[in-house]
Write a structure and sequence with these properties.
- The chain is α/β, with parallel strands linked by helices and 373 residues long.
- The chain has one domain: TIM Barrel (Alpha-Beta Barrel), CATH 3.20.20.70.
- It has an 8-stranded parallel β-barrel. A two-stranded antiparallel sheet has the order 1-2.
- Helix 1 packs parallel to helix 2, helix 3 runs parallel beside helix 5 and helix 5 runs parallel beside helix 6.
- The two termini are 38 Å apart.
- Bound molecules: 2-Phenylacrylic acid.
- 2-Phenylacrylic acid binds next to loops.
């Protein structure tokens, strides 16, 4: 075998096996966690998700879609949960299907905090948050889009229950056959709301200083690693993203501190949304995220706006260990083959991202498939 795939595509180690904690991944290409809003009543993953993830099992690693750890952690219609047995059983079918295809799959543990609405909450309660500050924007409910409300500030005495919910969800993920878990600390959801001074105005042990704002993430990481061991746990951050009306006066300072603190756990990986989530990689008032990569003592996964060229380049330059692709994985179940061969990609059907059934979910063609009539 030569070290080229064809004349035009010099070898990249993106396509080579790589050690990943206790695992060997078949390549360095990660399927990013992607909300698809197709779960059944009771926040149970749809049987269609078995086929969806099986189709994408050639990713070196799949990070399954954000999944609420508790009913209060839900912020969008039809997202799946990992807080009861029926959900665990449904996830088992998914992890088995991926494993049968030789893939690896982690679960992303999610609590949305204030990015929710009473229509999505048990007993129509207010969403919870570090502080009672209303986000700009609208929630996606079963009745359509409705403006966010002012959330209820969590009492300090409730935080142990919250951390316990992360621990139980972590155990459930283990029972469900996942290979590991990712703590969702990005994109303006609950943990990110605690980290940042725009959303955290607390005056107790969970607000104010860098240490206090980072405390919830530390406690959650402690709980999750107590179940999994640090070598099967990652954390996702989006340090310079404005997603979900989040904001911070000094992102470089808090996120440098966060990574220093995370280093104490010797986690498997750090997964960074580079830029504005789903948007430009360069943002105003950003900072050089390579600072975090250099500081972190585990594997660095880069994400956001990657194409083949950029992924190959960051590997050549050593700027990321693994590269996560989001939207390209929705429309290309065989994305790894297509990138390896520098083949054209299927177009994304943006009208079928959220909600619905197989359409725009499990019906994207593989290379060599006959086009549907
Ligand atoms: C898009 C739509 C709904 C949720 C995230 C979990 O931003 C999400 C999400 C993205 O992390």
């Amino acid at each position: 075998m030569s070290d080229t795939n064809n004349q035009n595509t010099p070898h990249s180690d993106l396509f080579d096996p790589v050690r990943f904690g206790p695992y060997t991944l078949s390549n360095r290409i990660v399927m990013a966690p992607l909300t698809r809003s197709r779960a059944l009543q009771g926040d149970i993953p749809t049987p269609l998700a078995v086929e969806y993830y099986r189709q994408r099992a050639s990713a070196g690693l799949i990070i399954a879609e954000a999944t609420q750890i508790t009913p209060e952690g839900k912020g969008y219609a039809y997202t799946p949960g990992i807080y009861n047995e029926a959900q665990v059983e449904a996830w088992k079918a998914i992890t088995s299907a991926v494993h049968e295809k030789g893939g690896r799959i982690f679960l992303q543990l999610w609590h949305v905090g204030r990015i929710s609405h009473p229509a999505l909450q048990p007993n129509g309660a207010l969403p919870v948050a570090p502080s009672a500050i209303k986000p700009e924007g609208k929630a996606f409910t079963e009745e359509g889009f409705v403006p966010y409300v002012t959330p209820r500030a969590l009492e300090a005495g409730e935080i142990p229950r919250l951390v316990e919910e992360y621990r139980v969800a972590s155990k459930n993920a283990l029972t469900a056959g996942f290979d590991g878990v990712e703590i969702h600390a990005a994109n303006g959801y609950l943990i990110d709301q605690f980290l940042r001074d725009k959303t955290n105005h607390r005056s107790d042990a969970y607000g104010g200083s860098l240490e206090n704002r980072t405390r919830l993430l530390m406690e959650v990481t402690q709980a999750v690693t107590s179940v999994w061991g640090a070598d099967r746990v990652g954390v996702r951050l989006s340090p310079i993203s404005p997603a979900n009306d989040i904001g911070e006066s000094d992102p470089a300072k808090i996120f440098t501190y966060v990574v220093e603190q995370l280093n104490k756990f010797n986690l498997l990986y750090l997964h960074v949304v580079e830029g504005a989530t789903g948007g430009p990689r360069e943002v105003e008032n950003g900072f050089d995220l390579q600072v975090l990569r250099r500081l972190f003592n585990g594997i660095y996964i880069g994400n956001n706006g990657y194409d083949r060229e950029l992924a190959v380049k960051v590997r050549e330059e050593g700027l990321a260990d693994l590269v996560a692709f989001g939207r390209p994985f929705i429309s290309n179940p065989d994305l790894v083959d297509r990138l390896r061969l520098a083949a054209p990609l299927n177009e994304l059907n943006v009208d079928r991202l959220y909600g619905g059934g197989a359409d725009g979910y499990t019906d994207y063609p593989f290379l060599g498939d006959k086009k549907a009539a």
